[in-house]
Design brief:
With 375 residues, the chain is α/β, with parallel strands linked by helices. It folds into two domains: 172 residues, FAD/NAD(P)-binding domain (3-Layer(bba) Sandwich), CATH 3.50.50; 137 residues, 3-Layer(bba) Sandwich (FAD/NAD(P)-binding domain), CATH 3.50.50. Helix 1 links the parallel strand 1 and strand 2. Helix 1 packs parallel to helix 8 and helix 5 packs parallel to helix 6. The chain is globular, with a radius of gyration of 21 Å.
Length: 375
Amino acid sequence: MKSRFLILGAGFGGLELSTLLSEEFGASADVTLIDVNDHFMFGFSKLDVMFGHAEAKDVRMPYVRFIKPGVKFLQERITAIAPEARRVTTDRGTYEADHLVVALGADYDIAATPGLSEMNEFYSVAGAMKLRDILPNFKRGHALVGVCGAPFKCPPAPSECVLMLHDYLEQRGVRKDCKISLVIPLSAPVPPSPETSKALLAEFKERGIEFHAAKGVASIDAAKRIATLTDGSQMPFDLFLGVPKHHVPAVVRDSGLSEGGWIKVNPRTLESKFANVYAVGDGANTGTPKAGVFAERAASAVATALIAKVKGGQASEYDGFGTCYIEFGGGKIGKVEVDFFSGPQPKGNYYEPSTELRADKQLFGSSRRARWFGM
């Protein structure tokens, strides 16, 4: 009897894993991919939408275009996961598998930061679209980009946000009347790459952007427009752009898969404590950043393990390598390659911002649109 593969979540990890299994097994793959949404969107597209560089409808990739031999996509809401039995219940049915892979990502815990629900966040599509309408009315005052807790998705994104906000205000001729600050609970903008962090700090200084490291936003007084930081200090603002605390989806927490807020896995094999149950992406505690490129790379490693279990052969370990493109403003894009597992400490290679790297970033997106959606 052929093996049944059940993949929860159609983000970077779920899409790449389903594609690899389809390529290996063809029409006999027997892959079921489940996601509550009807489309996929790159995380970096949210900033483009927020600042008016793209329309949401143009950066959405509908799952009806994800057509792979042996893969069945189901748009359903997952209501329960029984990892020991590798059984999943949704709002439409129950599914069992020989191999279960959880790639449901991380959810935003708005309630964990008092007052945030009355403010603006830019990590969700809805939040980015709301800010798209708010930003044109901001002409004077203090704009605070505040991260409420770590770990969080795409660590460079808050830095990108303040640099793109600077450009946005410059283009509208109001930058001189506005102050921009970034509060982040990390020691540097991109801790694994000191060169990248140094470059970003230089850009902040040149543009008059205040950077506050190693502290997060603990609470917000929406009426007084004051943010209280984790060190007890307070920061008044006129416009708040927040990054909420993250956690695994409730259905994952309730399943018994998570420990300390995240799914505990072997960081090199992505195996959970349950037999034939794996986790990839933002919800897995691998020690690598919560970003799509790392989820995709982890999915590749899991694919080799699943193929080896069915056909024999050697599985490859997750190497913890990823490439991130960073918007530096002014039309320039930088790049950092980070290797987390080959040495005793993570190491990063930094590529200076250039207009040429924009083509690289565009190829990154277009290649995956074509590979997964034929677009």
